[in-house]
Structure formats: structure tokens, C-alpha cells
Write a structure and sequence with these properties.
The chain is mainly alpha-helical. It has one domain (22-190). Helices cover 78% and strands 0% of the residues.
């Protein structure tokens, strides 16, 4: 047996495996910080440094946080999505109540549709993804549809790349939240969601 064959069989030392999560986390934090700054800049450029621009910028930062958290942990925490839903509903109810019906319909339909996917795919999507889509519906209203189209296509491309590039990739689950958040971030900038404030 050659030394290279033995190296392939022996487990990695704990020193090597301990560094991997730290490297991955550092990379995600860096990419998330860059994405957050870029999205806030683009959002303020589009909406202005006024209440609407600030509100959408905060939404962009929330989406970046959720995307990074899901990428690292494969979880979308309720302690983020549920309070965010309440904040969005309060903002809409106080400042632009005429947008509430559209937002509620989009949020409920998005959640229901993705919850059905959770059941049908049996692990392809998580309940956290369904709650995230509910939040995105409350944020984006009718712009949820093109946002989901972008997110699902981006996630499908990423899944295909993982399936081809990684050994055992077809069995490896990917975090779908980052792609849904990407679609939502693009929707805020390009698909004309109803005003948030």
C-alpha cells in the first residue's frame, strides 16, 4: 500500500479539521460585509437617503444576515424571521396601510406554496425556507414572484454545480436561503415592490 493510499484512508488530524469551519466562517463574514455595504449603497442610491431608502437598506442587511447564517448553519432562525414579519406588518400598517392586503396575500401564498414544497420534497427544503418566503412576501408583495424565480433558478444552478463538482454531491443538501435572499435583494432594487414606509 502506497503512502498516498494510506493518507486517503486515515482521518484528518484534529488540527486540520478544526481550522476548516473558522476559514469558512471568515470567508462568509467577509463576503457578507461586502454584500451588505454594496446593497446598502445601491439601495440608498435608488431610493435616496430618506425613510424609504433607510427602510429598504435595513431590509437588505437583514437579507444578507439571513443568507450568511443559513449558508454556515443550514438553518434560518425563527428569532430573526418572526420578529421581522411583525416589524414589516407594523411599518406597513402605520405608514402605508393600503399595501397591507397585497403584502398579506403574497406572504400567505408564499409560505403555503413553500410549505407544500417542504412536504413534497421531504428534505429538499426546510420549514425555515417556507417562513423566509412568508417574510419575503410581506416585504415584496407581488414582486415576490420574480424574486422567487431568480432565487429558485440561482439555487438550482448551485445545486447542479455541487452535484457535478463534489464527490457525493447529489446527496449533499445546499442551503437555499442565500438564493432566496439574493432574489429578494434584486427585487428590492429592480422589481418595484410596494413602498415599505
Amino acid at each position: 500500500m502506497a503512502a498516498s493510499d494510506l493518507a486517503a484512508v486515515e482521518p484528518l488530524s484534529s488540527e486540520t479539521t478544526d481550522r476548516e469551519p473558522t476559514r469558512r466562517l471568515g470567508w462568509v463574514i467577509g463576503a457578507g460585509a461586502y454584500a451588505g455595504v454594496a446593497l446598502v449603497y445601491l439601495t440608498l442610491s435608488k431610493f435616496g437617503v430618506v425613510g424609504l431608502g433607510v427602510a429598504w437598506s435595513l431590509a437588505q442587511l437583514l437579507l444578507v444576515f439571513v443568507a450568511c447564517f443559513d449558508f454556515v448553519t443550514h438553518r434560518i432562525p425563527n428569532r430573526v424571521t418572526l420578529p421581522a414579519m411583525v416589524v414589516v406588518l407594523v411599518l406597513r400598517g402605520v405608514f402605508v396601510p393600503e399595501t397591507l392586503p397585497e403584502a398579506l396575500i403574497a406572504g400567505a401564498a408564499g409560505f403555503a406554496g413553500f410549505y407544500l414544497l417542504v412536504i413534497v420534497t421531504r428534505g429538499g427544503f426546510g420549514v425555515g425556507d417556507a417562513k423566509l418566503v412568508g417574510l419575503l412576501g410581506l416585504l415584496l408583495g407581488a414582486a415576490l414572484l420574480p424574486a422567487l424565480l431568480v432565487g429558485i433558478v440561482a439555487g438550482g444552478v448551485a445545486s447542479a454545480i455541487v452535484a457535478v463538482a463534489k464527490p457525493g454531491g447529489r446527496k449533499q443538501a445546499i442551503a437555499y436561503g442565500p438564493y432566496l435572499c439574493f432574489g429578494a435583494s434584486l427585487a428590492i432594487l429592480a422589481f418595484g415592490p410596494p413602498p415599505l414606509v
